[in-house]
Automatic annotation (TrEMBL):
It is found in: Membrane. The keyword Signal does not apply. Gene3D superfamilies: 1.10.287.70. Keywords: Ion channel, Ion transport, Membrane, Transmembrane, Transmembrane helix, Transport. It is a multi-pass membrane protein. The chain crosses the membrane at residues 43-62, 68-89, 101-124, 154-175, 187-206, 212-232. GO terms for biological process: monoatomic ion transmembrane transport. It comes from the Bacteria. Signal peptide: none annotated. This is Potassium channel family protein. The keyword Transport applies. Residues 162-236 form the Potassium channel domain. Its main location: membrane.
Length: 275
């Protein structure tokens, strides 16, 4: 066979590029469109993501199980497929890779593929819940059911939960079985200490040993109080909708607003049903 016959023809190259383009177009429709098939796909992806997050939360309790490694690697495969699919669905892959949720997902994938090397940072897997709330797939079902007004308080609750479990994982990893009296003996103790510290209850029956333990407790209290204040504001502040004013650009308005309170421009805010 000649060298010329070994080379791919122009038609083969065009056909390959067209096939890749069709795949990317199909993935964009599945991840971003509103068709019934796309909504079913997005719902399935969301359910799988939530199941993975439940596994991440339960990881400290399941780590000694014989099947843990296989589940860990299976989830890694699912996350890898999802990352590749989302990369192909993006219009600019390099720009997509620079987004913080994507960077966090890549790090989480690394902890799944190399649990023996990155086990000390495995508690950061719960950040997957935060990255999930950065996508429209998470919020679209709520908005479709008229619950878009509650996005801010729901996000505040999720931010607090993520913080609690990240801190619990850190406390368990860094301080478990290091103290004698008042030390952390297990994951439940770490969670109990975190909640008691964040809420500033301070029972004192479980404490972190040494000066580093005191400094960690101070940081946990300061950030925890800030997140609680943010949650209270989101719950008790009057609900507003996200609708940019065409005139001045003000993005938050009351759901029944007729005119922009900043410039008086006539608004046409859709109702909760999206009409």
């Amino acid at each position: 066979m000649s060298k010329q016959e070994d080379k791919p023809t122009k038609g083969d190259t065009v056909e390959h590029q067209t096939g890749l383009a069709r795949l990317r177009s199909r993935l964009r429709l599945l991840y971003h469109s509103q068709s019934p098939a796309a909504q079913r796909f997005q719902a399935a992806v969301l359910i799988v993501d939530l199941a993975i997050i439940v596994f991440f939360i339960a990881t400290p309790l399941l780590r000694e199980n014989e099947s843990f490694l296989w589940i860990d690697l299976s989830i890694a495969a699912l996350l890898l497929v999802d990352l590749v699919a989302r990369a192909l669905a993006s219009t600019d892959i390099l720009r997509w890779l620079r987004q913080m949720p994507v960077i966090i997902d890549v790090f989480i994938l690394a902890t799944l593929l190399a649990p023996a090397w990155l086990i000390n940072l495995g508690f950061l897997r719960i950040l997957r819940l935060w990255t999930l709330t950065r996508t429209s797939t998470f919020w679209r079902p709520l908005k479709k059911r008229g619950l878009g007004l509650y996005q801010e308080p729901i996000q505040a609750v999720i931010n607090l939960l993520v913080f609690l479990f990240v801190v619990t994982g850190f406390v368990y990893t860094a301080f478990a079985r290091r103290g004698e009296d008042g030390g952390i003996d297990g994951y439940i103790d770490a969670l109990y200490f975190t909640v008691a510290t964040v809420t500033t209850t301070g029972f004192g029956d479980i404490t972190l040993p040494g000066p580093w333990g005191k400094l960690a407790s101070i940081v946990i209290m300061i950030i925890g109080i800030s997140l609680f204040v943010r949650l209270a504001q989101a719950i008790f502040r009057p609900a507003k909708v996200h609708f940019p004013c065409p005139q001045c650009g003000l993005t938050k308005h009351e759901p029944d607003a007729v005119h922009c309170k900043a410039c008086g421009h006539l608004l046409n805010i859709p109702d909760s049903g999206g009409h």
